[in-house]
Amino acid sequence: xxxxxxxxxxxxxxxxxxxxxxxxxxxxxxxxxxxxxxxxxxxxxxxxxxxxxxxxxxxxxxxxxxxxxxxxxxxxxxxxxxxxxxxxxxxxxxxxxxxxxxxxxxxxxxxxxxxxxxxxxxxxxxxxxxxxxxxxxxxxxxxxxxxxxxxxxxxxxxxxxxxxxxxxxxxxxxxxxxxxxxxxxxxxxxxxxxxxxxxxxxxxxxxxxxxxxxxxxxxxxxxxxxxxxxxxxxxxxxxxxxxxxxxxxxxxxxxxxxxxxxxxxxxxxxxxxxxxxxxxxxxxxxxxxxxxxxxxxxxxxxxxxxxxxxxxxxxxxxxxxxxxxxxxxxxxxxxxxxxxxxxxxxxxxxxxxxxxxxxxxxxxxxxxxxxxxxxxxxxxxxxxxxxxxxxxxxxxxxxxxxxxxxxxxxxxxxxxxxxxxxxxxxxxxxxxxxxxxxxxxxxxxxxxxxxxxxxxxxxxxxxxxxxxxxxxxxxxxxxxxxxxxxxxxxxxxxxxxxxxxxxxxxxxxxxxxxxx
Length: 516
Ligand code: FAD
Description:
Elements (H helix, E strand, L loop, with lengths): L5 E6 L9 H7 L4 E8 L1 H4 L15 H20 L5 E4 L2 H11 L2 E5 L6 H16 L3 E3 L9 H7 L8 H8 L53 H11 L3 H6 L19 H5 L5 H13 L11 H17 L21 H8 L6 H13 L4 H14 L5 H11 L5 H11 L16 H6 L4 H6 L19 H6 L15 H34 L1
């Protein structure tokens, strides 16, 4: 055993060297540094019963993205004289075992607001403090500390974006330079008989070569994140004029937005560094867009959902949630499966669901369309079911943002105009009249004339035959008729809203009564 004491930096998200306060603190005043990542079999293990390759919690695209991010982190640590120590098991238990066996005086890890980490971190911190180990757990995944915003608002999270903006103001660190990169790191300490491995490959995790014809074009890792950031913001005017929801959701060769979400999700990119780069550009242009539509505005949507999610019990469910409308959704497994498996018979919807499965990423408005279609627009299926499918397949899958947006799109919270429904036919056509997006993701329709590509069931049989796509045989008929289905959905939403109002009235009557 080497002499001296060490620090353990525990990577979970925050898979980067730049702007990493936990890594920086761990490296200071220590003889050894243990940079650890724990591979959790529960998250990574192949699930043969899942509807697509991957574990029960994550699709293979995201698992691959995570492994690529770890390989890149290891390589960046090696450049600084260190390496990544990969261990396997239930992460909380593994870290406690490391603390028992190694001579560690400091434990550093990024603070995480997700319930899964909150529960685990309590256990680990309890062990560390009983063992006299210093714990440093800074907020660096988000621009703001959600707890500070909630405190400023009298203990409750703000429920509108505008009220969030008012409370948040400028981040406290915004005017100081961020510590971007260390130049060297302390050597790795002796790890005794702990089983350390290299970053596993997907094959070592038990995945077979799936022969999937099209994999996600997005590669994981900090190096790729910084390159993508540089490319995305290289055109100052593009950044200055960025305006969402303007932008073409069907653009897939060159997406209309940055596609930095998977890198922010795993912390390969620091949101604070991204924010500062954008502020630097704003300083150098004559005028620029503002929140909610600007690029900084997008980062603030992320903050908004993190804050509400952190301050709302049962944020991820309808039951026992004080912000979620109670709606009697259908429990129709066949409709859910048709949506999930891109078999609704609406090419615009199905193409988006194929992009989700193949790429693990779609444009924001494309997500709007399929989420609306599944819930209050056409199928009236529970938003939690759609949330789970996104949660597993998206490479940027993020607990707070995914739940927040599903609550929004299903008109269960935040947004209540349930009469505004996306048409599964005319919405996509507006952007892509030739249907290039559909032809790419649904090659069965590649020869369908543009007049019919959004509604192939209306094509005469002779045209279907010529296009080698017979509806009902090669491509499904629509699972519902949009006009009647959307009318019925609006009627049911109207009824549910009225009932919610009545129930709220009753509750407050009772509350008042108990106060008297
Ligand atoms: P850009 O437009 O370039 O924005 C930059 C960053 O801002 C994004 O990377 C993201 O971190 C943040 N951002 C942008 N839009 C939003 C938003 N509406 N809410 C919160 N943050 C935002 N985003 C996720 O990161 N993870 C999810 O699991 C997720 N699930 C979603 C589910 C539904 C039903 C919907 C409608 C949207 C969901 N989003 C999710 C939000 C949004 O669609 C993506 O963040 C965005 O499309 C990512 O692409 P981008 O990086 O090019 O975004």
